[in-house]
Write a structure and sequence with these properties.
With about 160 residues, this protein is an alpha+beta fold. Helix content is about 30%, strand content about 40%.
Length: about 160
Amino acid sequence: MSAQLDRTGPEAQARFEPLLADRLDEVMRVEDRAYLLPWSRANFLDALHSGYQAQMLVAQGQVLGYFVAMQGVDEVHLLNITVAPEFQGQGWARLLLEALAIWSRGVGAQWLWLEVRVGNARAIHVYEAQGFARVGLRKGYYPAGQGLREDAIVMSKRL
């Protein structure tokens, strides 16, 4: 099911807001719909308590998507990026990645890093279209349910 925003009027403008603990109920509703094995509330709380960069993209009172990223010495590691299923395919992931790149440059990062499930062709396509390159493979990185594991492609982008 795809939903379109009413893109007329000032209230239709999407904006970034900090992802804060008091908005986790909304984020968890998106996370639970987007993934078979979603991040837990504890994962988000740990990231927030650690001071990781966490931003939500919202419009018309709805969470369109969000990202969580960890800053390193000269790099940023994307830990979670999600677009609500009903808003996928509308360019929001590209906007989230662009915002992450702008923030990363602002904190002096020279590289963006991420892992993506080998079976997530849609995300791989988005990352490659945004200039990320495949640089490695992590065997058994992701839980895949029923005691199974899925490999992850390691990708990076020079800023």
